[in-house]
Automatic annotation (TrEMBL):
It comes from the Bacteria. GO terms for biological process: methylation. Transmembrane segments: none annotated. The keyword Nuclease does not apply. GO terms for molecular function: methyltransferase activity. This is Ubiquinone/menaquinone biosynthesis C-methylase UbiE. The lineage of its organism: Bacteria, Bacillati, Actinomycetota, Actinomycetes, Kitasatosporales. Keywords: Methyltransferase, S-adenosyl-L-methionine, Transferase, Ubiquinone.
Length: 222
């Protein structure tokens, strides 16, 4: 049976290693929008758990979910925390309320974005906060050849900045199964993101986060 390029099951280790090498703008930005302390937090599409452990420093309980079983196994192995519960599961099967809800680079995978956003809103407790970040692009889909050429172009930059060994590893990881995954992705434009998310989350605040777009929304109090 052909692999589903949208699945992370067969790219979990590669995805994790690539992010270790190229950095994580979301992880650097996230502490700026996190309250000092809180009760319950949810990480939607937690992947290897790198953001869940940031939440764990601020919240007593963190639920971290991902549809990919191998990703959850990786998170449990690499980033175990006493107050983080990793679970393979679907967003729409998750119930709240949560004081903080995070989704990073996840919601472009869902078949019905509007339904997903409305469900996310229902998970946020009165007075809580939702922070949603996703990749945006002027074009909905990026051709495979364009992504490959981009990796070739960056190879020379990485050789100068990181050395040939690291540069080649980044290139190899960027042009394997992960490239097929990225070519299958469909993105909103920055303006489309603001409209779609702002429709469900009135008075949300938007700002760029690297190549992605971020939204911060504070739920009304009781």
């Amino acid at each position: 049976m052909p692999r589903n390029p949208q699945s992370f099951d067969h790219v979990a280790e590669e995805y994790e290693r690539l992010h270790e090498l190229v950095g994580d703008p979301v992880g650097e930005w996230l502490p700026k929008v996190l309250p000092a302390t809180g009760g319950r937090a949810l990480d939607i599409g937690c992947g290897g758990g790198r953001h869940a452990v940031v939440l764990a420093e601020h919240y007593r309980e963190v639920d971290a979910i991902d549809v990919s079983g191998p990703m959850i196994e990786l998170a449990r192995r690499k980033r175990p925390r006493a107050n983080v519960s990793y679970r393979a599961g679907d967003l729409l099967d998750t119930t709240g309320p949560y004081d903080f809800v995070l989704s990073a680079a996840t919601l472009h995978h869902v078949p019905d974005l509007g339904a997903a956003l409305r469900h996310v809103r229902s998970l946020v407790a009165p007075g809580g906060r939702a922070v949603l970040i996703d990749t945006v692009s002027p074009r909905a889909a990026t051709p495979r050849w364009w992504l490959y050429c981009g990796s070739v172009r960056k190879l020379a930059q990485h050789v100068v900045a990181r050395g040939p060994g690291v540069a080649w590893e980044i290139f190899r990881l960027s042009t394997g199964d992960w490239l097929e995954h990225r070519a299958s992705d469909r993105y909103l434009s920055r303006e489309g993101f603001d409209h779609a998310y702002g429709t469900v989350f009135p008075k949300a605040r938007f700002q760029p986060v690297g190549r992605a777009q971020g939204m911060v929304w504070d739920a009304p109090g009781e």
